[in-house]
Amino acid sequence: MDKRTAVVTGGIGGLGTAICIALARAGRRVVAADLGGRQERIDAFLGEVDGLDVRFQALDVTDFDACGAFVQALEAAGEGPDILVNAAGITRDTTLRKMERAQWDAVLSVNLDSVFNLCRHVVDGMCARGFGRIVNISSVNGQTGQFGQTNYSAAKAGMHGFTMALAREVARKGVTANSVSPGYCETAMVMAIPDDIRQGIVDRVPVGRLGRPEEIARTVVFLSDDDAGYITGANIPVNGGLYMGF
Question: Is 243 considered catalytic here?
Answer without folding.
Answer: no
